[in-house]
Amino acid sequence: MRSNTKLFIAIIGGLFLGVLLGWYVNTNFLPEETADFAKKIKLLGTIFIRMVQMIIAPLVFTTLVVGIAKMGDMKMVGRVGGKALAWFITASLSSLLLGMVLVNWLKPGAGIDRSMANEDAAKELVANTGTFSIENFVVHVVPKSFIEAMATNEILQIVIFSIMFGIALASMKEISTPIIKALDTVAHAILKMVSYIMWVAPFGVFGAVAAAIAVYGLGILAVYINYFGAFLLGIALLWILLLIVGFLILGNRLWTLLKRLGSPLLIAFSTTSSEAVFPKLTEELERFGADPKIVSFTLPLGYSFNLDGSMMYMTFASLFIAQVYGIDMPIEKQLLMLLVLMLTSKGVAGVPRASLIVVIATCAMFDIPAEGIALILPIDHFCDMFRSATNVLGNALATTAVDKWERKPESN
């Protein structure tokens, strides 16, 4: 616990120093010098995230396979999976609806001057984003090669292979015991690596925050005050909703869970990557008392199906762009967009700026100018900080809720 406190303080220190250095560079350096500084200092954050990405694929594979194999009972696998998916679908729809209601109520896109957008900055992002189709969705979800999925950190594809492999091992009973023990040992070794890698986090946070503030400056928040304020209201309401549901399920243990989530939430917030805390989150949920089998099964699924902060942002940003361009979006069309986003958002947890890519693909489907993404690019990094932390909270609550539901019958 003392080590966690020291890490948390170190991360806070990195965040604070990053803001100070970034602000100093932004206000005292020329634009060319600022860009060069940001490019170099950001390497600290890149190193940390790459170190985490290095262990995500083997960690998901080993923990998920071992968790399913140790469950043994396929009825339990189906029961846990069913409860997890019920939470994911409900949470996703609630998040999407919240974004839709807020953007219709507050209308942050009304009266925005489109000339503020540097549409050249969005061209590359738009050009590299394909249109959504069922064929593309299936191809993305189902792996053609396990090795390729591991190499590219395609979490959803790794999850599908791991579930099938775990079920196969469980059906083999005693014969598979040596393989399960070996994978269990590998999983524990990787979790040990997590404790080493997390001490790089303060430097990663320092570099990521300093780079962002140096390029955009704190003044960008004032320019986008309506958009950012409406978004923060949405995040606050989403947190309130999640915490109320969490309290109803966990009771007073919710506060213990939130203490455990201090470091993961801060790292996700500072690095704008919920993926960066996956190993640490796994460790903290097990220390909280959640069954490792439930954690290893539910958490990887959550990273593909339960991105609450990102889901809220997707409807919010898509409808914001429509408002800016004066495009009429009747309620039935908005609800259709919501359902499309439910599909297009799955399995993109490891993709950089995944929310923006999904927004671009969805806008193209509804005849909303995808170039409008340029309007929100300058502020997106700061929005990403909050939605990444919200994704972590949502997945932690989903995992602990499923764990509580699984333990309840045993206590009666």
Question: Would you kindly provide a brief summary of this structure?
Answer:
By secondary structure, the protein is mainly alpha-helical. The protein has one domain (2-411): Proton glutamate symport protein (Orthogonal Bundle). The chain has 19 helices and no strands.
Could you walk me through the main structural features you see in this protein, from its secondary elements to its overall organization?
The structure is a single chain. With 412 residues, the chain is mainly alpha-helical. It has one domain (2-411): Proton glutamate symport protein. The chain has 19 helices and no strands. It has helices at residues 2-28, 31-71, 74-106, 120-127, 134-141, 146-151, 155-171, 177-197, 201-216, 220-223, 225-250, 253-260, 262-271, 278-288, 292-305, 308-324, 331-344, 354-365, 377-411. Helix 2 (31-71) runs parallel beside helix 7 (155-171) and helix 16 packs across helix 18 (354-365). It starts with a helix and ends with a helix.
- Annotated CATH homologous superfamily: Sodium:dicarboxylate symporter
Structural class based on helices, strands and sheet pairing = mainly alpha
At the first level of CATH, the class is: Mainly Alpha
Helix share, percent: over 70%
User: How can the largest sheet be summarized?
Assistant: none
Q: What Rg, in angstroms, do the CA atoms define?
A: 21 Å
**Total domain count:** 1
* Overall spatial form: globular
Count of beta strands: 0
- For the termini, the CA-CA separation is 32 Å
Helix and strand run: HHHHHHHHHHHHHHHHHHH
Strand fraction equals under 5%
CATH architecture: Orthogonal Bundle
Count of separate DSSP helical elements: 19
Uncertain segments of ≥5 residues (pLDDT<50)?
Answer: none
